[in-house]
Structure formats: C-alpha cells, structure tokens
Design a protein that fits this description.
This protein is of the alpha/beta class. It has 7 helices and 11 strands. The strands form 3 sheets. A 6-stranded mixed sheet has the order 3-11-10-6-7-8, sandwiched between helices. Strands 1-2-9 form a 3-stranded mixed sheet, with no helix packed on it. Strands 4-5 form a two-stranded antiparallel ribbon. Helix 3 crosses helix 7. The radius of gyration is 16 Å and the shape is globular.
Amino acid sequence: MTRSARLRLLAVLATGGLAVAGCGAASSASEEHRHGDAPASVEGPDDRFAGIDLPEPYQRPTFTLTDTAGESYDFGAETGGRPTLLFFGYTQCPDVCPATMADVAVAMRMSDPALAEQVQLVFVTTDPATDTPDVLGEYLDRFDADLPTQFVGLTGEQDAIDKAQLAAGVPLAEDDGRLHSSLLLLYGADDEAPVAFDTGNTPQDIADDLALVTGT
C-alpha cells in the first residue's frame, strides 16, 4: 500500500485539540491483539513532514498519572515547552508497541545529541491491570538504556487513563487495552503537535521531523 493510500484510510479529524474523541477502524493482527487508528486527518496540501501532517495541530494535553517510580506525574507540567513524543500502548503488545519504542530509540541515536537530550518520550499504558510501575520500568529499560533522556512510563486507574486518551485526542483503547491507537504524537516547544507517526513511518522519518519541529 502506498503512503498516500495508507493516509486515506485514517479517519477524518472530528474536531481540533482536546475535544477530539472517538474510535477508529481496527486492523486485526490476531483475535487477541488489534490496533485502531486515531482520528487524524489526511495530510494538508503543504505536506511538510515525513510523518502524518495534522492540518489542525493537537494541543498538548493535561493529565496526571503515576510514573515508574510510583510518583505522581503531571504530563502538562513535566513536558510543557519541550519536544515530546506521546504514545499509548501496553507492555505485552507483540508488535506495534515494541516496534514504535525501538524506532524512537533509533531516531534518538540518529539525532544530534543536543536535540536528543531535549526530547521526552512518554509511554502511557492502556492495560493498567498488568502494567504496574515496575513492569513499565523494566519494559522501557529495554529501549532507552543508552539514551541521554530516559523514556517515561505512566500507569494509573483505568478512568484516569481513559481521560488521558481523550485529552490527547486518541480513541479510547478497547479489549483490555489490546485495541489502541497506533499513533505517536510529536509536540513542539509551542505545545502543539503538528505531526504524528504510525506503523508506516521509519526512525529516519521521526528524526527528520524532530529536527524540523525543533528548528535544529
């Protein structure tokens, strides 16, 4: 499938910013593990990014969950004003989640070290019943051990995680977290996400768009 054809399969943006909600169509990897597409629109005419251009940028959301140290983590306060990658998934995911984390890690290694130090990756579990702080910490350590900025893993009560997904503008995960958005959102220092990535993008795409969003 071509990239343009893949993008046309994404659901149309319902509304901008924090109000975006809804569930996209799922593609089955198996009966037990599926991923849905967040409600991103097709790319605008400028097509500035290697990832998926969002004609109406998503606003950086505000939500509070629990990090891998068991401490309260205010996403808006902790990441505001810095380049941030946000992804919702779960540690027992056999394909999209580990591939996305690996792609981000490779992109960080490809980037200028000064830029890599600025970028924060936040992984929010869609399966809080399984993904305790310890489980999340061990999982993310597989990908970020040699990076200048460690990945942040967040968990919490299901209601709080649902609110975080709605605030970010991705569809609520279903089937105990197995049906979840495959989008990786990139926010800039202006607290807007003009671009997102999915399974069709490469580490080079992420690295290139990080440099573009940050002006480096």
